[in-house]
Write a structure and sequence with these properties.
Citrate Synthase, domain 1, binds carboxymethyl coenzyme *A
Length: 388
């Protein structure tokens, strides 16, 4: 069968739709999360994100996404135990992290580390649901260890082993800083993890599902998803937002003028706009309140003020609202996290959604394989190489 999509000749019965960027295309059914772009609402398996952010921990959300319902206390305890038991990263992977040049992009390091973890998992090629569920736990448990280990090694410090108990948020901040986090920092970070756990068929989740749909393995799919998240139009935007805020701060530039100048130069302002939301991203609204509180508490009110001026300018000039990356950036910064690690935090949280989507994909798999409209030449004949 020909691969050509001849839109000019196509008949409705061909079922061929041309949608650049797959804008507006519904590629599959999912029970995991839903975005109402007009109302600015996000739900995970029926629960509003605001409700979850206020009343549940990250691990409760992980259970919700993997199992379909919020856990009972004993189910939650069991999940904590499984994550604790799985935090042991093979020494070969830690050795690899020691050899990575210090200036390597942390998302590139994470991408390779996750790929390397596959080589030391006896179940990598076991495609049974039970093995995939166990791999999801190992990935979620080990990614924070890899990120924190790399961050310490490049700073000339030894990695810190995970604690025998404690949440993902607690352990990550502990392994990063070598000391137990305060309650407020842990709670703030935990909410950030809840907010990033899933988000419909975004680019990285789609990438993961495309890889999964070929019946490849979970590590391959997550490695690909990390590569997609790294880009500045997706998860990499949180790093770019903080670079912008620092540039404004360092140059004493008026934030309003900064935005106007960059828009006039035809540039995008990172942390704004979204493929699905036509209004404020509800995650941004939650994070906005967190930035206000943190900037007050840490005597760093200027970050909040810059961001509010940028937000108002973008709304007036472009009618574009902020997305999750706009306010998560300054939250992480005020928690003392290195700017270039921001996207890895997004990745560790989104591993929840990526793995849940893979389990959903494999429960009723169909190869994901769209088509391209061929716009190149036809009818050419080969000239022998000596005559070209
Ligand atoms: N700054 C300035 N103009 C923008 C922006 C922005 N941040 N976002 C969209 N626009 C303009 C864009 O120039 C275009 O204008 P025109 O029609 O005049 O050419 C119009 O809005 C539509 O943009 P688009 O790129 O066709 O829309 P899209 O749905 O493909 O883009 C997006 C969505 C997220 C790629 C885009 O809004 C963007 O580049 N934002 C900045 C990067 C960013 O913050 N990414 C994080 C996304 S949300 C969370 C995540 O996935 O990590």
């Amino acid at each position: 069968m020909s691969d050509h999509v001849e839109t000019s000749e196509q008949k409705p019965s061909d079922g061929v739709v041309k949608a650049p960027g797959l804008k507006g295309v519904v590629a599959l059914e999912s029970e995991l999360s839903f975005i109402d772009g007009e109302k600015g609402e996000l739900i995970y398996r029926g629960y509003d994100i605001r409700d979850l952010a206020e009343h549940t921990s990250f691990e409760e959300v992980v259970h919700l996404m993997w199992e379909g319902e919020l856990p009972t206390q004993s189910q939650l305890d069991a999940l904590h135990r499984k994550l604790q038991a799985a935090r042991d990263v093979p020494s070969e992977v830690i050795d690899f992290l020691r050899q990575v040049p210090d200036d390597t992009h942390p998302m590139a390091v994470l991408r390779t580390a996750v790929s390397a973890l596959a080589h030391f998992d006896e179940e990598t090629e076991d495609t049974s649901r039970a093995a995939n569920q166990r791999k999801a736990i190992r990935l979620l448990a080990r990614m924070p260890v890899c990120i924190a280990a790399f961050a310490r090694l490049r700073a000339g410090k030894e990695p810190v082993a995970p604690l025998e108990d404690g949440s993902t948020a607690h352990n990550f901040l502990y392994m990063l800083n070598g000391e137990e986090p305060g309650e407020a920092a842990e709670e703030t970070f935990d909410v950030c993890l809840v907010l990033h756990a899933d988000h419909g068929l975004n680019a990285s989740t789609f990438t993961g599902r495309v890889i999964g749909s070929t019946l490849s393995d979970m590590y391959s799919a997550i490695t690909g998803a990390i590569g997609a998240l790294k880009g500045p139009l997706h998860g990499g935007a949180n790093v770019e937002v903080m670079k912008m805020l620092k540039a404004i701060d360092d140059s004493d530039k008026d934030p309003v003028q900064y935005v106007k100048d960059h828009l006039a130069a035809g540039e995008r302002i990172m942390g704004f706009g979204h493929r699905v939301y036509q209004t404020m991203d509800p995650r941004a609204a939650i994070l906005q309140g967190m930035v206000e509180a943190l900037s007050e508490e840490r005597d760093a009110r200027h970050w909040y003020e810059y961001q509010m001026q940028i937000l108002e300018t973008m709304q007036t000039e472009k009618h574009i609202d902020p997305n999750v990356d706009f306010f998560s950036a300054s939250v992480y910064y005020m928690l003392g996290i290195d700017i270039d690690l921001f996207t890895t935090i997004f990745a560790l949280s989104r591993t929840t959604g990526w793995t849940a989507h893979l389990l959903e994909q494999w429960a009723d798999n169909a190869l994901i394989r769209p088509r391209a409209e061929y716009v190149g030449p036809r009818g050419k004949t080969v000239t022998p190489i000596a005559e070209r």
